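Appendix B, Record 12. Input sequence as logged:
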Amino acid sequence: MTHGDTPDTTDANLLARFRAGDSSALDPLFARYEGPVFRFLFGVLRDHHAAEDALQETFVQALRRADAVTPDTFRGWLFTVAYRQAALLKRKAKRLPAAADDLALLNLIGDAPADARAGAADDARRLRELLNLLPAPQRAVIAARVFDGLTFREVAAAVGCPLNTALARMHDGLKKLRQLWEARHA
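Logged structural output:
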């Protein structure tokens, strides 16, 4: 048990509740580890935005694999996933961005310098059109995160859903956006 835990709020108990169908049980886990994992990722990546992206993907992986994790090793497993996400981001940053790279796509949506490049305005317009094809819940999370610059905790509060739901919607929305983009540019 970590300091301040009661028997009902241990990692093992929260994971057991999640596995039994209580999706809200992940919120206290994510809240517990959001700060420490972000600080770890920032230490590895030395970039605030990259650390946020890695944190998002770490929690998405945790959400996907929560059924397979041994409760007693959850903390170590989560930091291992975080380290792998940081390593993936570092490798990705070394190569040229792929045409449908999430960050490249999202840079086209915003008022980033990408809008000043030739053809980027057309790409941004196309990307906004594709964004409108997403289901409303995914579109709302992406818009709050990208346009408003909210953290995932703030996004969850703004759209009125649990943190793990906001993370899953962002992940699913970006995946769908990437598929739509690649289908249009194939």
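The radius of gyration is 18 Å.
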